[in-house]
Each structure stands twice: as structure tokens, then as C-alpha cells.
């Protein structure tokens, strides 16, 4: 096996620090021992006496150069803060390492578990989600264009019972056999007003459902509400949002109706199967307030699954209380009125809306601020320019690195002589230099250099995130909470918001208007 090549980096900020605790020698010794225990080969030792807040140190430049040259597989340091105290710089180094196929490792902590590491990982996930949203939006725009021109957008209309999809015209045509079943369903429902009665009738008759299987009450419900059968096809009438199920852990998607101004009718694309009068009669039954009242109304608690009681640390659950006929949402400790256990808790109910707002403001404040988010956003935004070429070159480069490793391996096995190694090394080095130069020219155009980022640009990007967060709807908020793994510990008066956020100072809000809120980073 080819040994993993480690670069050991140690840093103290001043000579004073050199004298106490973790001196350069101590750090370096710990790193070397760690490297040995992991079977790594220490190929370089770099020491800096400089502040952890600057990237402008000689050792740092050496690290980046060695990474660029593909000379190391691991940058090993005693702790994250030895490498840098600035999360933006750590982000830059992490990128440099990843580009070179190398990684950062620390003797005293796992990178992902350190506050900076957790934040970078979280912020990347968040930026990734924002990017995915943008892509989804672009795709949506294309579909909307198609709908406006009277053609059925992709993903619609092919799977509708009663129709076939004509690929050439982009329109639906009636499937006579299935259309007969659809009409039958509308008539039987108008007569019985029961989804399950209609579905069991169809099953008894042996009429196969869409995919040849059985009919279910929910299928009937969906068919009855499908506007297509009245000859109308509306694109973007509904949308999917992310929610969570009862235990608050499993993500689910839920379909909700969009506001009417978002709807796009795809005129003339769908022939009518059910006549107007029958259609309207069925819709009246479906929308009957009596019928709707019998159904349980879903209440949404976005913080469900993220809440701990500030008094006994148990999970908190959502509960709606009705005061003078008006529903109010609360979060409460599950040990208040818990019939199943002896345990009881004195915690009082926390008003839902107010708490959610405080948490959201806190998330917003952090997300529209730190430098790493800016860095990540830039990185994400600039990707795709020449991505295929970059990854092609990187593939070639890692192939060269692989050949280099094999060469060392063969040499250590004694299979080839020193001169052959030297010759081949020179060849490989030449190949590598050419590729690296091309990569470097691509990357300078692409990767922002934090040293050169001007203030205007920083503020502009910051504003971009803040705007996105301002416009964020329920599902986007959920996304941000997810990406940052937000958890909340709350009592009636105080909420502590945590997550992968490096929140540096606690924040208090007056007790009068909203929750008193303190935050901590861990
Ligand atoms: Zn409690």
C-alpha cells in the first residue's frame, strides 16, 4: 500500500504562547505521533509564528503550494484553530485541499465536529439547497412557457386515467374505455356520496384501476377533484411542500393549492369527459362545509421535532388551544399532562407564532452574515462555467498522481531501479505542470480570492442572502432549519437557538413583545 503523505502544520501566534501549553514542539510531536498511529508518512513539517486571523503567513502559502503540486494527501494540524481562526480561511483551505484530492485532519478533534467544521458543512448544505431551488425554478419557468403555448408541460398529462397522451401534438386524447369508467365514478359518487362505496363497487365489478390493480377511496377522491375531466387543464394549480410526519423526523411532501393568480390554464389541450352539470354537482358535494368539517384539520408546527423543554429537557409537542372560538398554536412540554408516565413538568405553554418568529429571525441574522456563507455562495454561483473541463483536467491530474504513487510503490518493492524512477518522475512532473497551469488559469477566473474580494461585492452577496431569506416561504424556512440543524430549547420566557451556527453572543429581546431569547453556538 502506498503510504498517505501528511503535511504537519503547527502555529503559535506569539513567542509568549510558545512558552506555555501547546508550543510548536508539543503540537508537532502530537501530530507526528498521530500520523504514525494512522500509518501516514510525514513528508513535510511547517511552522508559523503568526496570528490565526490572517492567511498571509509564509507557512500558509507553502501549504497551498504543496496542495497545488499534489505533494500531500493530508494537511495535519493539532486543532482547527491552529490552522486558522477564521472560518472563511478554513473554507478556502478546505477547497484547496479538495481540489487537490487531499483532506484536512486534526489531532484533537474531528473536523466535522468542530464548531467551524460543523458550520462549513451546514452552510454548504444550505447553499446547495438554495442552488437546487434555483435550478428547480428555472425548470419550472420552462414548463410554464410550454403551458402558456397550449402544450402540456412535461410530467403532466401522461399519467391521467381516461386519457392518452399524444406525443406529437403534445395534447391529450380521450381513452374511450377509461372515460366510461370515469363517468361512472362521477355518477356513482353523486348518488352515494361515499368514496369507499364507489371504490368497493368497482372492485366487485372487477374493473381494473389505472395500473391494473384495485381501487381505493383516495383514488376516487383524486379523480373526482381532477379538473381535467371537465375539459380544463391548469398547470401550476398545486405545489409540493416539504413537511414532517407525526414523530417529526421523516420528511414528507404535501400537496397544497397555489393562489389562483399562479394558475396557468393550458387551453384546448384536454377534451372534456364529464359534462359540466355533473362536474359541478360533484364539486358542490366535495366542498360541502359539513363534509369538510368532519375531516381533521391539519395543524402545522414547523418547530416540531426540534424542540426541547427548557425545564426538564423533554421533547415539546405542538398543541392548538381554542380561545373564544379562535385557534392558537402552542408548543408544550410533553410531560405537562402526560397520562402515560408519572413524570410531570411545570413548564408553561409557549406561543407558537412568536417563538417561530424569534427562531427565524435568529437563523436569518446568522445566515445573512458570516463570511463562509459568502464564500460558499460565490463558489456555487461560479460553478458550471467550465466545470466539465475542470473536472476532466482533475481526472487527468489524479491519474498522474496515481501513476506517481505506483512508481514509488514499485521502487519500494525493488521492482525498478532508481534511474528509471527518476526518468519517469521527470516525465510525470512535466505532464502535471502543464495540466496544473491550465487548471490554475481556469480557477483564477472562477474561484474568488478572499483577499481580493472588494467590499461592495461582499455587501451585495450578503444582501442577496438576506433577500432570499426575506422572501422564504414555509418550505424554504424548513429547508434552512434543516440545513443548519436548528434545535430550540424553550420555556415560556426564554428560547435558546442552537444549530451548526457559530453564534458568538447571546441575544436578548424584551419580554414585553416577544420571547426573551438567548442563543448559543453549541
Ligand atoms: Zn418539561
Describe this structure in words.
Helix 5 packs parallel to helix 13, helix 6 packs antiparallel against helix 17 and helix 14 runs antiparallel to helix 15. Helices cover about 45% and strands about 15% of the residues. The strands form 6 sheets. It has a 4-stranded parallel β-sheet, sandwiched between helices. Strands 11-15-16-17 form a 4-stranded mixed β-sheet, with helices on one face. It contains 17 helices and 17 strands. It has about 525 residues and is an alpha/beta fold. It binds zinc ion. The site of zinc ion has 8 residues, from loops. The site of zinc ion (ZN) has 8 residues, from loops.
Please tell me the overall pLDDT. Answer: 74
* Class by SSE composition: alpha/beta
Shape: extended
Q: State the CATH topology of the domain at 4-113.
A: Rossmann fold
Strand order of the largest sheet: 2-1-3-4
* Terminal-residue CA separation: 40 Å
Under CATH at level 1, the class of the domain at 4-113 stands as Alpha Beta
Give the ligands present. zinc ion
Report the strand count: 17
User: Radius of gyration in whole Å, from Cα?
Assistant: 31 Å
Helix content: 40-55%
Tell me the strand percentage band: 15-25%
Residue windows where pLDDT falls under 50 for at least 5 positions = 445-458, 501-522
Give the CATH architecture of the domain at 4-113.
3-Layer(aba) Sandwich
Mind summarizing the main beta sheet? 4 strands, parallel
Number of helices: 17
CATH level-4 homologous superfamily of the domain at 4-113:
Resolvase, N-terminal catalytic domain
